[in-house]
Write a structure and sequence with these properties.
two-stranded antiparallel sheet; single chain; 3 helices; mainly alpha
Amino acid sequence: MVSDMIDKAINHSQDERMRLLLGIVQRLFYDSEENSVKMADIIRETEIHGMEQKETEETLEQLSRYGLINKLPNGKYSLR
């Protein structure tokens, strides 16, 4: 029972990070004239919300794996 509670807490926390980060990427993307977002800009925004750089990078990879964003060859990100 306790392990289920921990799993739910971890999943909820990850879900919150993913939603926050996706919202940031979407906002930066729509404000961009390049149709892409620089990693540095994403990190700057997530740090305002208390996310560390490593968390941001890991969450970006998750969003990319789930098909919610694209990681471009130039290291920038775009929406699918």
